[in-house]
User: What shape does this take?
Amino acid sequence: MKIIITESQVALIRRLTELEHYLDMAIKELNEDIKSGSPGNRPDNFGVYEGWVMNRTKRYFENNNPNLEWISHDFKMLVSGQFNNKIRKGFNQVKNRR
Assistant: This one.
């Protein structure tokens, strides 16, 4: 069985530790924003929370790697697949504090 990996995926895989750092920052800041905000700023479900975390992580990554070209779908698949447990743990911390 052959597995085909695009250049975009390879570039992101090489930066997994950097992505994890940005993900940790995004989860921490998002959870602080949610806890200090009004009830309308709370995510209804995990999918909403995951989207918020992805957007923040993507923004941090883009700002620190402006010359790196990558496909948004590859980014979301990699981060969601690799760090799903970490994102879920962050969501549970916010969900339990309602």
